[in-house]
UniProtKB/TrEMBL annotation:
Pfam families: LCM. One of its GO terms (biological process) is methylation. This is O-methyltransferase involved in polyketide biosynthesis. GO terms for molecular function: methyltransferase activity. Keywords: Methyltransferase, Transferase.
């Protein structure tokens, strides 16, 4: 059993992992992430304290399923490409997707997160690399070849960055690669304030910083950036599979503009 010694933003991945495991164990599983279910059995941690409810688990699975869909679309259009999975945590996307031989895939996260990841998951196929670093220092990106289109996936990451860090990261990626897409979720500024009351965030002792009020704030980072999609987290498919209470909450959120804009999934191209 692996003992967990993570705090702050890094510790929030435990709630996400547990949510996917709960979903995988459900007879109405959305994501079918059985590797997450196996992983929590190898970790010495009281997951009952992470603040993840069964209904929350379904929403975690739906978010990941949406990003899986965008990932598959990009790989279908670009059989030879690079994937940067930033703030990968314990996510098993590379195993769920099963990218082809022309895809170079990099899972990137803090060294202590990557250390745990190596202990829980198999090494992966040729072309798969794990990079143990924070995403904010500039040097790590120089190790990634810039000869292919890139898909950057940053699920559940941006809100833990400071605005200047997030904008600089976007700028460096756009200037490093010939072209590609960036897919990630972001909270509005009001959403950042409200998420500070989120139980998993409180339990982890994490701090949220960067709020994004619309795609224009993102495309202003670099003249090459343009927005392909900006989808409210309440508008993605699959909510018919969650419990009645969550379906009611989603219905209310869709009617209130400030809630609809509170959490948005962006797909940018350059």
């Amino acid at each position: 059993m692996e003992k967990i010694r993570l705090t702050g933003a890094q510790a929030t991945m435990l709630a996400t992992l547990y949510g996917k495991a709960v979903d995988a164990g459900s007879p109405r599983s959305i994501l079918h992430d059985t590797m997450a279910l196996d992983a929590i059995g190898k970790i010495d941690h009281d997951f009952s304290k992470v603040g993840m409810k069964p209904g929350d688990a379904a929403t975690v699975a739906l978010r990941s399923l949406h990003f899986d869909g965008w990932t598959r679309e990009f790989l279908a259009a670009h059989p030879s490409c690079t994937v940067l999975h930033l703030g990968c945590g314990m996510d098993t996307r590379v195993f769920r997707i099963g990218p082809g031989s022309g895809v170079r895939w990099y899972d990137v996260d803090y060294p202590d997160v990557i250390d745990l990841r190596r202990k829980l998951y198999p090494a992966g196929r040729p072309g798969y690399e794990i990079v143990a670093t924070s995403v904010t220092p500039p040097g790590w990106l120089d190790r990634v070849p810039a000869d292919l289109p890139v898909l950057v996936v940053a699920e559940g990451l941006t809100m833990y960055l400071r605005e200047e860090e997030g904008r600089e990261l976007l700028r460096r990626i756009v200037e490093h690669f010939p072209g590609g897409q960036l897919v990630f979720d972001a909270f509005s500024r009001r959403g950042i304030r409200m998420q500070r009351m989120n139980k998993p965030v409180q339990v982890a002792g994490a701090r949220l910083h960067w709020g994004v009020d619309g795609a224009a704030e993102l495309t202003s980072v670099h003249p090459r950036l343009r927005c392909l999609d900006a989808v409210s987290a309440f508008d993605i498919g699959g909510y018919d599979q969650v419990g009645l209470r969550y379906r009611a909450l989603v219905g209310v959120a869709r009617m209130l503009p400030f809630m609809r804009r509170m959490a948005v999934m962006y797909r940018l191209a350059f």
